[in-house]
């Protein structure tokens, strides 16, 4: 694998992934926050803190967002330095990023659960590993005459500038412990009042200490408040290597201390903890095996995407199962849940990453849906984009509907899912004004059967989103036996037709009087910054009706969409046609299957695997968005892809000769053999399911075909793809 993938790219092509360490799904994501030579901040390139093109490490912070297109988290900043004297230290503190260090990629090592880098300026080797809420640092100082070994703790640091609201740090020199907190209000956390991160740091053998405030050091002072404050520790002269433990909590300093003690087993060695953490990663990764002797790069991309997909959402419960709820109170997770999760970038992850978790780890998928329902219990409403312990209102739609439908339609939900509570929440979001994260006024939407443009300029994308959401709600109602109610939601799922302009053949905003407000010329149709559309243009939304199974699909227009999209050779700016890094385009390549042109799905899917995704640091087509793009690559390279909210997968063109997946904690194995595969044999001749022709091709069903416990009582499931250089044209059959 190559974990640099997704750490580079500019503008809309930035993968925005942090580089550092975490446990699978861990809340603590400890990594380097970097800057360029001139220390000129380019925010869009540093949403995850690290950018491959940079030359300097500013410091190491302990929480990060994971590939999102917005900044938040990134606090508890620490960096080791070497100084000549206190004057030297004062010079570092008084300058912006005055303690940063040059580094080189040749002196970096990055593995799941382990990171190493040499700080060239300070002559220190840094090693990092992490449990779910504890970061473990090991610093090895080069022996330089008359240099003092120092650790700087910038407790008021946040990755996003100027969002600290309150910060405090206290040094306990008797117990060799440093405690503190930072309350910050970032791009998302600020929407619900902010987040407090508490920390406890332990290390031994320091000789001196002090604090700083507004760029001025104060020797021997052990406590300071303020959003321009920090602390420093000067190690004993003989200390050339030091191990430091940093526990964080979103509950309290005492809980941070508990996390520290429990998760390090009372301060095991760095190497012991690293071994435990990396074994956790191996246990996850080794459940997936792919091979393609003719395309080793595909194996690298798959394994890297796997690590990225297993890195989120965020485990929110802390040691002993406690967590901070949406009601601001401390709760203990239910016994039927292994973990509580947050940082659910639902606008993104409902399409790929959560369906991937449903596919291979149903226990975790259930915990995620239970977490959403806990949000409802504590905050009264279904969330759009739950972050930490709050509602953010981020993005559009009510796509938690689709996540819930996906789990239920695949019959992977456990007996603890309260369907009565689920149905009440779905009815509310579709028909009432929520306090948090609601839709456009439901009564007006139901009256017009679309969102009027003169009431919301995002009329078309909102209507398209709600149509998909209501289809998912209909699925849940149907599964619950509420067939009449399901029919009503299925009727609402057709309301996308009301914003389709037959004159232009595009989805356009429509006002209360029924007049369309479409782009007026070709340039406007291709403007991805058109405020009438959300993160896209009219072309991007032309095909966003994933739940429409029509065989009369406008396949020629869809083909044009991809042909012209292939001509765009940069990710710096959005592709005005098919945009591989744009969420509502992710399903478009699979829609050829609806028109009996699965050959075109296979053709373009394979092209995208080879061209939109590479093994370079800028090898993602855009923000990974909590594993969304990575999970798209995983599904597509396996040769099938989910229609989220249903039990249906659509067949594509697998990128490997052999795929083996151990699912649901060894419950069953899916083995995929791909015969005659090659760079030119990209078309599927036929598919066998357990030795028999897949009669539903190009569709395959989770329940009837791939569900572990329902496949004729077989513990293993086998798919055989037979490939050819000649397309199979289903419409000729």
Mean pLDDT over the full residue set: 96
N- to C-terminal distance: 42 Å
Which strands sit side by side, in order, in the main sheet? Answer: 6-7-8-9-18-13-12-11-16
Q: Would you state the CATH class of the largest domain?
A: Alpha Beta
Structural class designation? alpha+beta
Main beta sheet: 9 strands, antiparallel
Per CATH, which architecture of the largest domain?
2-Layer Sandwich
Percent in helix:
25-40%
**Beta-strand percentage?**
15-25%
CATH third-level topology of the largest domain: GH92 mannosidase fold
- Approximate shape: globular
Q: Low-confidence parts lasting 5 or more residues at pLDDT below 50?
A: none
Number of strands: 33
Helical element count?
17
Which oligomeric form is depicted? single chain
Radius of gyration: 26 Å
The CATH homologous superfamily of the largest domain is termed GH92 mannosidase domain
Number of domains: 3
């Amino acid at each position: 694998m190559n974990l640099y993938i997704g750490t580079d790219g500019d503008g809309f092509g930035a993968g925005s992934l942090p580089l550092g360490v975490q446990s699978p799904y861990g809340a603590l994501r400890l990594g380097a926050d970097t800057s360029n030579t001139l220390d000129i901040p380019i925010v869009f390139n540093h949403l995850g803190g690290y950018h491959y093109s940079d030359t300097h490490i500013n410091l190491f912070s302990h929480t990060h967002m994971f590939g999102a297109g917005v900044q938040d988290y990134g606090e508890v900043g620490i960096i080791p330095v070497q100084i000549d004297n206190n004057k030297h230290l004062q010079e570092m503190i008084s300058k912006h990023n005055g303690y940063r260090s040059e580094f080189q990629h040749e002196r970096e090592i990055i593995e799941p659960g382990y990171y190493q880098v040499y700080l060239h300026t300070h002559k220190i080797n840094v090693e990092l590993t992490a449990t779910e809420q504890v970061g473990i640092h090991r610093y090895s100082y080069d022996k330089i005459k008359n240099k003092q070994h120092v650790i700087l703790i910038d407790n008021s640091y946040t990755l996003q500038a100027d969002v600290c609201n309150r910060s405090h740090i206290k040094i306990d020199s008797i117990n060799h412990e440093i405690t503190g907190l930072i309350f910050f209000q970032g791009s998302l956390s600020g929407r619900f009042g902010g987040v407090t991160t508490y920390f406890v740091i332990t290390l031994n053998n320091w000789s001196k200490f002090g604090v700083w405030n507004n760029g001025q050091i104060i020797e021997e002072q052990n406590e300071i408040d303020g959003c321009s404050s920090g602390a420093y520790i000067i190690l004993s002269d003989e200390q050339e290597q030091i191990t430091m433990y940093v526990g964080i909590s979103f509950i309290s300093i005492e809980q941070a201390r508990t996390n520290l003690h429990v998760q390090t087993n009372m301060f095991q060695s760095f190497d012991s903890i690293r071994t435990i953490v990396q074994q956790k990663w191996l246990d996850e990764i080794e459940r997936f095996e792919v091979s393609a002797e003719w395309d080793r790069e595909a194996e690298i991309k798959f394994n890297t995407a796997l690590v990225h997909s297993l890195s989120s959402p965020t485990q929110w419960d802390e040691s002993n199962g406690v967590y901070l709820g949406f009601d601001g109170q401390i709760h203990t997770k239910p016994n039927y849940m292994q973990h509580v999760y947050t940082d659910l970038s639902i606008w993104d992850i409902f399409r790929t990453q959560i369906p991937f978790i449903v596919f291979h780890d149903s226990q975790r998928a259930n915990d995620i849906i239970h977490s959403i329902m806990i949000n409802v219990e504590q905050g009264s409403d279904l969330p759009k984009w739950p972050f930490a312990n709050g509602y953010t209102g981020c993005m559009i739609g009510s796509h938690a509907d689709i996540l819930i439908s996906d789990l239920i339609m695949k019959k992977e939900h456990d007996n603890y899912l309260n369907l009565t509570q689920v149905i009440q929440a779905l009815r509310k979001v579709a028909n009432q004004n929520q306090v948090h994260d609601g839709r456009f006024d439901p009564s007006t939407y139901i009256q017009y059967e679309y969102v009027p443009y003169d009431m919301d300029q995002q009329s078309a994308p909102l209507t398209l989103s709600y149509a998909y959401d209501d289809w998912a709600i209909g699925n849940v109602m149907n599964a619950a036996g509420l067939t009449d109610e399901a029919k009503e939601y299925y009727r609402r799922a057709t309301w996308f037709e009301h914003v389709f302009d037959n004159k232009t053949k595009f989805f356009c905003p429509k006002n209360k009087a029924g007049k369309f407000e479409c782009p007026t010329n070709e340039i406007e149709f291709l403007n991805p910054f058109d405020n009438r559309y959300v993160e896209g243009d009219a072309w991007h939304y032309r095909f966003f009706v994933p739940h429409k199974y029509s065989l009369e699909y406008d396949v020629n227009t869809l083909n044009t969409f991809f042909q012209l999209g292939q001509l765009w050779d940069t990710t710096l700016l959005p592709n005005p046609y098919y945009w591989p890094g744009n969420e509502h385009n992710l399903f478009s390549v699979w829609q050829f299957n609806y028109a009996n042109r699965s050959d075109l799905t296979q053709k373009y899917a394979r092209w995208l695997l080879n061209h939109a995704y590479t093994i370079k640091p800028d090898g993602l087509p855009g923000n990974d968005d909590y594993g969304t793009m990575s999970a798209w690559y995983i599904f597509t390279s396996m040769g099938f892809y989910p229609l989220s909210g249903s039990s249906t997968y659509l067949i594509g063109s697998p990128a490997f000769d052999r795929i083996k997946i151990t699912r649901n904690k060894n419950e069953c194995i899916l083995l995929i053999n791909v015969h005659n595969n090659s760079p030119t044999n990209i078309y599927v001749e036929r598919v066998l399911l357990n030795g028999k022709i897949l009669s539903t091709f190009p569709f395959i069903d989770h329940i009837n075909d791939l569900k572990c416990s329902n496949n004729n009582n077989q513990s293993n499931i086998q798919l055989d793809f037979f490939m050819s250089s000649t397309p199979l044209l289903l419409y000729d059959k």
